[in-house]
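Last lecture ended with a question: if I hand you only a sequence, what can you say about the shape of the protein? Today we answer it with a concrete record. The protein is Leucine-rich repeat-containing protein 41. Below, first the input exactly as provided, then the predicted structure, then a couple of comments.
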Amino acid sequence: GLSTQPIWRKLWDDVMKTRPPNSESITCWRKKFLETFFSNVLHGVLDVSSDWRLNDRHFSPLLHSSPHVSQLTLCNMLQGAVELTAQHNHKVLENLAGSLRILKFQHLLSCDQSIRRSLVLLLHRLIHHGSVSQVSMYSWPVPDTVLLVLILTMSAGFWRSGNALAYHSSPCGLCREEDKAQSQESAQEGEERGCNAEQEGSGGENQKRSPKEADAYKNSVLSGPRSPPLQNPACEETSSEVPCGHTSIQDSSSPHSSSEQLSCHPIPQKPRRRLKPAVGRKRRCLRRSRGHYTDPEDLYDFVFTVAREDNSGLLDKTRTTEGENTENWTSSSPGSPGTDHAGFKKRGGPVGILSLKAAHRFRSVSTLELFSIPLTGETCRTLSNLLSSWVSLENLVLSYNGLNANISCILSGLRALSRHPDCRFRVLRVSDMFSHMPCMELVRCILSALPQLHTLSVSFDLKNQLEGSRPEVNPSCSKAEIPESCLEVLEIRFPREPLHTAFLLPVLKASKSLQQLSLDSATLPCPQELGLLLGVLKECTPNLKKLSFHDVNLAEHQKEVLLLLQDPGLQEITFSFCRLFESSTAEFLSEVINTVKRNSSLKSLKLPGNRLGNHRLVALADIFSEDSSSSLCQLDVSSNCIKPDGLLEFTKKLEGHIQQRGGQLPFTHLRLFQNWLDQDAETAQEALRRLKAVCSVVNDAWDSSQAFADYISVM
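The predicted structure:
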């Protein structure tokens, strides 16, 4: 029953010899130590020979700590991937396959073919045959397209085993076991069908399988530990016309034979098993040498094919006429001549490209995050193509990728995914420096395409610098119909755009299940706008529990603020940097306190950055007076110019109210980040010591003088 946390904390100091970041938030020092220990040894940051306890030839640091690693970060030249796939670390990789949940890539650099092969083997083991459910990539200003697309493709569950991507030109042992089991199952099914056919005496009818039987067999071939079927419904219609899953091939009258384009090696099967060429086979496709790629075993063959693959609902499949090239796709405006409904234009391209349907489909991750990685139009089309059939995907985060108009391409892939019966996609977060369209227009487009979303976050810093003073959306667009959605959380960060309730109205009407709304950096075009918004929220969102305003000037909207504080449906209200008390009177503060005292449903009140100061903080303690019916549990007064003497006075007043209430107080959490508590360390320590006997206090060691200097320097 004794805790080992202090021992692991001391081990951190002895072995790591560094101060851990965010040490206050660490809940398990054992896990933190072992994960960091594994990472530092893997990347050569920690020299085990320098510590006598670790310098033992019988002790393997990686093997010992690997079962406790749930997240791992690979950096720079992917040296960690090379080390983990080395033969002597086979058991380490096996342990990671069972324990690792989050795989991160940070500050990657271009690498050679041998390192990419190591990465492929690592991803295949950890994702396809492992437990990794989240792949995150960070800070890649000039991404290597081949490497980026490779990680995306394998995260989506695709792998063309049996080529240069695998050692010895053969699938891994786990793949061989699965294929052997599936072959035995197929053979057994074939024998059973043969017996049934003889008993029924209808051998001719059994030559043609019913649609249900075909689907069942297709699922048996591609299921098991692997992801759902590889083909989309639209692709299945034309799969018989597209051997080995080419994007498109020439008509049967073409002088080029299929043998010239590719060579397939199927798994040995019973003759009775009749399969479509694009499904259920292990194949090794060699493209014709036409000057595009001379090495059929080149990794580029697989990677660059992904962007050209057609999708269900994303690209209309058409067949080329005799002598024409296969279709390639470039971004264009929807509705323009020569484009399809998704806004893609056809142009000439190389022939005989291996499509995704020629690759095996394995287990895929459920969360994909891309932070500060520029995505080109070609990369966006690749990602869109992968998204269209990525049925395991639940969360997608695209942050500062320079998408601009390419967001439409991403939405096309997600729209195709949403039509899949097994789609589990629920969370989309998009943030960028510039917005190419008004935020509300983008929100409406997303919800129209993805009504099954539960969480949507859209955030932009600035309007598009090329558009200058961009005209606002025509008010008539606010009447556009949005299907009823499952949206529960909506977060919008406006690039200093006016908040027009008329544009938000159709979104709120379609989101009856909305529970949390956050509006950030919006401007109010007229004094009545906030009142209109509150009326719409009350009418359209009966289930709203959390409402947040950040960086929205509410100094002149005291009446609306009081109305929100007395709303019986809201449980959490945030006014962050809203200048609430900038020009307020003592009467307004008194009304705020009395309103909160009467509201028994409000659980959390967050007021960071509103210039409370000492005297207003002390007054807020009256929320918990003896005559209060408030159920407030959490109070956030961060960044409010609070000094140690004011905090001590607040603490004493709070203690008095506790005595009056017989020791019963619902208040449990107080947040004090970035206040001026360093101006009198002794008084601050006394106030914090007494406060921690009342509630949980979260604060930081903030240097107010340095922060003020930084503020002055950027003015």
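Comments.
1. Residues 545-714 form a domain with the Leucine-rich repeat, LRR (right-handed beta-alpha superhelix) fold (CATH 3.80.10.10).
2. Residues 547 and 711 are 29 Å apart (CA to CA).
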